[in-house]
Amino acid sequence: MKSNQPVCVTGASGFIAAHIVKELLERGYRVRGTVRKNPQNYPFLLALPGAAERLELVEANLLTEGSYDKIVEGCDFVLHTASPYTMNVKNPQTDLVDPAVNGTETILESCLKSGSVKRVIFTSSIAAITDEPDSKKVFTEKDWNTMSSLERNPYHYSKTLAELAAWDFIMKKKPSFDLVVINPFMVIGPSIGPSLNTSNQILRDIMMGVYPVIMDLNWGFVDVRDVATAHILAMETDTASGRYLCSAEAMHMRELVALLKSAGFDGYALPKIDLSGKAGSVLMKMLSFTQPRDTGMYIRTTIGRTMHYDNSKIRRELHLSFMDVKKSIIETVNDMVKWGHLPPQKR
């Protein structure tokens, strides 16, 4: 039976969070979502079915201590999704690490003060599990990223430190609420809002000629709607605990390009030259030094390696069934055209 208390969703306008808000409203929950600016700046949230009756948007700043005290007050559940997601920044410490870690500690302190919060569901990332695929290893929730730093894949470093800060808070403060963490891989799918999320942008870049050749890269894909559902199942399932690796299927760049061609998107500037062999990977590593610092680092630490992971825990404990990734990729492309992030293809 649902409580009359609202569910708090931080960063409600974000790619994943907006879908969480949508599904919570569909399930009949009251939702209190936080946004960075005046709530009227987010008409796509206010227009969701049920929003007029059960959605409250509140302007908030995660980096201001105590700013969430009144926001989480009276809430049984807090779904903390707000965190910076960008690859190339001028100052990794101030642009990535500080907001991610300090924001996490701010929200947890407010939950501690509230006395009402029963569970916090925290959006982490595969980045907190590893920043480097290992062709001989299958990654699980037990794995932690120990290789990233301010110099090496700083985005991955920020996600790792933020999640570690959350678990450290639970261990030291021993609050009355528990913590459940969702660790998605590359989140794709249709967007509720007009902005372009980073993972969808990678698909767009592949289609717009930013990647002129096929490289030996593979990604784990998961539909944003599955990630949203995972958060809500983690909230609703009393026995949910620990971390949940949330990714449907790994796909090589070669398979991705072939899928896009077969789906009728061959009018875009898809890469035609396949350099996914060993010699090509050596060349790509050399050329990666011509890319922005963090993009180049990401290529060098992932190219030529195959990612394997085990998603059985989330399927077994939360009973999550994943959408077909191929269908999701095609829907993503069509959605980017609809929003104007991709031009209609020329024939």
Could you outline the blueprint of secondary structure elements for this entry?
Elements: E1 7-10, H1 15-26, E2 31-35, H2 43-46, H3 51-54, E3 55-59, H4 69-72, E4 77-80, H5 92-114, E5 119-123, H6 154-173, E6 178-184, E7 186-188, H7 198-207, E8 213-214, E9 218-223, H8 224-236, E10 242-246, E11 249-252, H9 253-262, E12 273-274, H10 278-287, H11 293-302, H12 312-317, H13 325-339
Parallel strand pairs: 1-2, 1-4, 2-3, 4-5, 5-6, 6-10, 7-9, 8-12
Antiparallel strand pairs: 9-11
Helix pairs in contact: 1-8, 5-6
Give an overview of the whole structure:
- The chain starts with 6 loop residues before the first strand and ends in an 8-residue tail after the last helix.
- It has a domain of 229 residues: Rossmann fold.
- With 347 residues, it is an alpha/beta fold.
- The protein has 13 helices and twelve strands.
- The strands form three sheets. Strands 3-2-1-4-5-6-10 form a seven-stranded parallel sheet, with helices on both faces. A three-stranded mixed sheet has the order 7-9-11.
- The mean pLDDT is 90.
- Helix 1 links the parallel strand 1 and strand 2.
- The radius of gyration is 20 Å and the shape is globular.
- 44% of the residues are buried.
